[in-house]
Design a protein that fits this description.
mainly beta, 2% helix, 37% strand, ten-stranded parallel β-sheet, eleven-stranded parallel β-sheet
Length: 719
């Protein structure tokens, strides 16, 4: 839940003493509002129809074909187990004046029925509240006051798209004729976002100028990667129309008449193939009607630009080549990747806890790692590396686990340029006896001891991942070493949720140079320990140890992260535990750290690990709470309880009145939205932490005072 600042004004919901019920059973408008078979509160003597708002939709939204002449009104406070008459036979004029009961209640309901047949109910309100004015803190001249919620600002409920599995694909060549599909349209694309709706309803997707040809699924993003529990995302799988415009275009969604932001998409040439349990690698041609049987055969058969959709139950849990269940042994091309994508609604399992690699990427022809692939929607189990990500890779929407994982890599292991690790769930990565060199997500560069220096690697995005309950060292580890290794830069680490991690939540380490951004991350209970069998390590929420002696400048931007309960009192080296560690070596290597709008909440461990350096004194505006005064160098710090909604159940949105609301620095355009996609800022300034409070307000009361105007008060309410 979140709360919003009471200075943000909203529309008025009318309240009354002798409450007027405007009943519209004939379909005719009541007081100028839209005709709805429902109940409305209105203010006597106020002509503006803007002051009439529906309290509840009717249970029968379609009024009778002919007007009901006589109606029967009743109310109840116990769900109509005990009804009470208001009027038993009155003309259906559209309005009725009712003097409400004098007893306060939170469970009031009103029902409208046909007098000729009282069992025929035409409208029942949702429960609403009648208040005892003695409990309110304003001058009130009315015996009772009702209240209801206003709507959220449109910008906070507009649909928003975060990412897609494919960013390019063909508009024809998909022979899928299931569900009445034409068998002539194009690629299946999956989108993730918020406010998309748990069902499609009348909502639509538009791609490169036209509506989607068909829809495969539309709902909450719960599997295979759970992006709903914390990120509250929905997921849509649709088919690209054969009428879509060629070349670079965009995808957007229209939900309830409101259009989302656009994601780029390129329509290009390429083939579409399928693998199914009824398929055959020897006799199949990969078409919908004659599919292949296995994932390795599909991977080996693709040309650059091709896509293979993997059907339900098409698993690969035994080793094939190069210590892997599936080896991607050839290259895609820039703008024309090869893609393995799980068919919408299907489950495809790859790897096993005893296999070193679930997917691997050795290209025997080039003698190096394969590049430009998409791996999306798989359920992956591995003994070391589950999903590799090389140059031009997109690892999207996978579930990855490695309960016996160990080694010097990551369960998602990345190297190269222009790669994206988006919307994956990583659970139970590592074992109690694993090395401290094993991590959940590991981004590195080419390493070498001899000159010349390896080319710089850049443009890497790690976002919207959910990493939890891991016994590996770090959740996200970005680091390299050796004398002539590649510099690694332009990392965008954002909107990730990390919960219960043995070692650091995030390390931005040695050889990370240039500009790098860490924002909107929620890091809870990282650095929990215990130590590793091979060596002790660090136990922090976020650790910065960036730069290189031969690089003139490195910049790290840490904005709007929420750190809670990080560190371990049992750490071997007590200087290496805490919420945050900014290594003195990073500043010595010309790193500048921009640290603003963060919430650092201690549950016992220090805000800053004892080894941490100090930053130059300045206007940082972070919230530090739980371990005494804020660092002196944060001259505009908030040293107060941020008032989370409920940290005990890991709800780190802000309550009404939080000192972290509307007090942050403007860090746009780096941070344009919060972790839930809410545009920032919603008030006069940014909120602190990963969540921006939505200005959903309650027209708490509208008082009709004798001889005076309508007056209102507002109260923040949970979203």
């Amino acid at each position: 839940m979140s709360w919003c600042h009471c200075s943000r004004s909203r529309s008025i919901l009318a309240l009354l003493s002798t409450a007027l019920l405007a009943l519209s059973l004939s379909g005719s408008p009541a007081l100028g509002v839209n005709p709805v078979a429902g109940l409305f509160f209105v203010v006597p003597g106020v002509a503006s129809p803007a002051l009439a708002r529906p309290l509840a939709q009717a249970i029968n939204p379609n009024p009778p074909a002919s007007p009901v002449k006589l109606i029967f009104l009743s109310y109840s406070t116990d769900g109509f187990a005990t009804p009470h008459d208001i009027a038993t036979s009155i003309a259906n004029t559209g309005c009725y004046t009712w003097t409400t009961p004098a007893t306060p209640t939170t469970a009031m309901q009103v029902r409208v029925a046909d007098t000729a047949n009282p069992t025929t109910v035409y409208a029942t309100s949702a429960t609403f509240t009648l208040y005892d004015p003695s409990t309110l803190d304003h001058f009130i001249y009315l015996p009772l006051v009702a209240r209801s919620f206003t709507s959220e600002p449109q910008s906070t409920t507009d649909p928003v798209l975060f990412f897609s599995d494919l960013v390019s694909g063909p508009r024809t060549g998909n022979g899928d004729a299931s569900g009445g599909r034409s068998g002539q349209d194009g690629a299946i694309v999956t989108l993730w976002g918020r406010n998309l709706g748990s069902t499609q309803g009348s909502s639509k997707v538009y791609a490169n100028g036209v509506e989607a040809a068909s829809y495969y699924s539309w709902g909450n993003a719960t599997a295979p990667a759970d992006l709903y529990t914390y990120h509250r995302m929905q997921r849509i799988s649709f088919q690209l129309s054969r009428l879509a415009q060629n070349g670079l275009g965009s995808i957007y969604v229209v939900v309830n008449g409101r259009q989302s932001n656009a994601l780029p998409f390129t329509v290009r040439a390429g083939n579409i193939y399928f693998a199914a349990t009824a398929g055959d690698d020897d006799t199949g041609d990969g078409s919908w009607g004659n599919p292949w049987r296995t994932i390795p055969h599909a991977a080996d058969s693709l040309a650059p630009g091709d896509i293979a959709y993997i059907g339900d139950g098409v698993d690969q849990t035994t080793e094939t080549n190069y210590g892997a269940a599936v080896n991607l042994g050839s290259d895609g091309a820039e703008g024309n990747p090869k893609a393995l994508v799980v068919y919408p609604g299907a489950t495809s399992r790859v790897g096993h806890a005893t296999i070193e690699h679930a997917f691997w990427v050795w290209n025997v022809d080039s003698g190096g790692y394969a590049v430009h692939w998409v791996i999306a929607g798989f359920t992956v189990t591995t003994g070391q590396v589950g999903v590799p990500a090389q140059t031009g890779f997109r690892a999207v929407g996978n579930y990855v686990t490695a309960p016996q994982g160990d080694g010097m890599d990551g369960a998602i292991d990345a190297l190269g340029n222009g790669l994206c690790i988006l919307g994956n769930e990583l659970e139970q990565i590592g074992s109690a006896t694993c090395s401290k060199l094993y991590h959940a997500i590991y981004l590195k560069g080419v390493r070498q001891d001899d000159p010349p220096r390896a080319p710089t690697e850049s443009n890497r995005e790690v976002a919207w991942n959910y990493i939890h309950d891991g016994l590996s060292n770090r959740a996200i580890n970005i680091y390299s070493e050796q004398d002539y290794s590649a510099y690694i830069q332009q990392h965008r680490i954002h909107d990730n949720v990390i919960v219960n991690q043995r070692g650091d939540g995030i390390l931005l380490g040695y050889y990370v140079t240039g500009d790098n951004w860490i924002y909107n991350n929620l890091v809870v209970n990282a650095g929990l320990g215990p130590e590793w069998v091979d060596d002790p390590s660090y136990h922090t929420g976020i650790r910065i140890d960036t730069g290189h002696e031969e690089v003139a400048q490195t910049r790290v931007y840490l904005y709007n992260n929420t750190l809670y309960g990080n560190g371990w009192s049992g750490a071997t080296y007590q200087g290496e535990t805490g919420s945050l560690l900014i290594d003195p070596g990073a500043l010595a290597r010309s790193t500048t750290v921009y640290l603003s709008n963060n919430i650092i909440y201690s549950t016992g461990e220090p805000y800053l690990a004892d080894e941490s350096t100090t930053l130059p004194a300045g206007d940082y505006r972070n919230c530090w709470y739980g371990d005494g005064p804020a660092p002196a160098w944060d001259t505009t710090a908030i040293n107060d309880d941020p008032d989370f909604v409920n940290a005990a159940v890991l709800n780190f949105q802000l309550q009404n009145g939080s000192p972290c609301m509307d007090t942050g620095k403007n860090v746009s355009p780096v941070v344009a939205r919060d972790i839930l996609g809410v545009p920032r800022p919603q008030g006069p300034a940014f909120d602190l932490g990963a969540y921006e409070t939505i200005p959903v307000t309650l027209s708490q009361t509208v008082y009709l005072t004798p001889g005076g105007p309508l007056t209102t008060t507002e109260k923040e309410v949970p979203r």
